[in-house]
């Protein structure tokens, strides 16, 4: 059983600071989405002639060579992008994980995604705890009560299985756990440990995708390799296997 330390008694009065910060956080997310939309729109307008599979295939070796020559810069940018997306609870974590596995390879991609996703989860956790606690608690009251009851009963072990089984959405776990008394350090290492098997599965699936040059030459029919088929089977079977293991462990208690 994991050890959990209380963060101190919670104040009974409403946290008015969270209500003040909620519009700010929502505004930041809106600005980020608008910037991304503008960048995508401008990129398509100015570079639409280059948005072809053949062009990207011709640039693939260049970018991989650039990553080998400037690893710190590439990994830092990739880390910040992933942590920012998950920290703001924006969509795109799954395709980004597959892309990182395809581009960086299994071990480098696994380490990068593991730390970046945990960083993003912790940022969302801290935002929930210190910026808009009362609004999150009122919005997800039912989920909070359910998770909090299990958390008080099982401790950090419950968070570990939520991460492992994916019983709740990624962002919901982050914000609701911010309302509990779990310590930040405990949330970090339990989350990283619990998410690691699932992260490994998705990164492995990314490594199974062919190069853009192979995709350009052979088309979609030429990419169904045994490794890719196995990766898809693993992606589909993983949640059921984890749930089965979790049920067996609960029955033994």
Can you walk me through this structure?
There is one protein chain. The protein is mainly alpha-helical. It has one domain (53-252). The chain has twelve helices and no strands. The chain has helices at residues 16-47, 53-69, 71-87, 93-104, 106-130, 133-139, 141-154, 156-165, 170-177, 184-207, 212-218, 226-252. Helix 4 (93-104) runs antiparallel to helix 5, helix 4 crosses helix 10 (184-207) and helix 5 packs across helix 9 (170-177). It is globular. The two termini are 12 Å apart.
Q: Top keywords for this entry?
A:
single chain; 253 residues; mainly alpha; 12 helices
Query: What oligomeric assembly is this protein in?
Result: single chain
Determine the number of helices (DSSP H or I, runs of at least 4 residues).
Answer: 12
Mean pLDDT: 78
Number of distinct beta strands: 0
User: What's the helical proportion of residues?
Assistant: over 70%
Biggest pleated-sheet summary: none
Report, as a whole number of angstroms, the end-to-end distance.
12 Å
Outline type: globular
Radius of gyration: 21 Å
Order of helices and strands: HHHHHHHHHHHH
Proportion of strand residues: under 5%
The helix-and-strand class reads: mainly alpha
Number of domains: 1
Unreliably modeled segments: 1-21
Brief characterization of the structure:
The chain has one domain.
Write the layout of secondary structure elements.
Blueprint: H1 16-47, H2 53-69, H3 71-87, H4 93-104, H5 106-130, H6 133-139, H7 141-154, H8 156-165, H9 170-177, H10 184-207, H11 212-218, H12 226-252
Helix pairs in contact: 2-3, 2-11, 3-5, 4-5, 4-10, 5-9, 5-10, 7-8, 8-10, 10-12
């Amino acid at each position: 059983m994991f050890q959990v330390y209380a963060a101190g008694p919670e104040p009974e009065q409403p946290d008015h600071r969270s209500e003040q910060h909620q519009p700010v956080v929502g505004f930041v997310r809106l600005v980020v989405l608008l910037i991304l939309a503008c960048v995508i729109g401008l990129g398509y307008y100015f570079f639409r002639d280059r948005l072809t599979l053949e062009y990207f295939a011709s640039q693939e070796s260049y970018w991989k060579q650039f990553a080998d020559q400037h690893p710190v810069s590439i990994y830092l940018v990739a880390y910040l992008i992933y942590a920012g997306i998950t920290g703001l609870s924006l969509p795109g974590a799954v395709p980004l994980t597959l892309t990182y596995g395809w581009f960086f390879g299994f071990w480098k991609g696994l380490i990068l995604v593991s730390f970046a996703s945990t960083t993003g989860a912790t940022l969302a956790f801290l935002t929930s705890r210190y910026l808009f606690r009362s609004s999150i608690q009122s919005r997800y009251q039912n989920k909070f009560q359910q998770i909090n009851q299990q958390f008080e009963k099982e401790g950090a072990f419950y968070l570990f299985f939520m991460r492992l089984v994916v019983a709740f959405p990624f962002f919901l776990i982050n914000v609701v756990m911010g309302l509990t008394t779990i310590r930040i350090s405990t949330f970090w290492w339990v989350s990283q440990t619990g998410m690691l098997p699932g992260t490994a599965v998705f990164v492995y699936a990314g490594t199974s995708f062919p190069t853009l040059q192979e995709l350009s030459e052979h088309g979609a029919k030429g990419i169904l390799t045994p490794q890719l088929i196995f990766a898809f089977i693993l992606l589909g079977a993983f949640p059921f296997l984890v749930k089965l293991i979790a049920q067996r462990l609960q029955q033994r208690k």
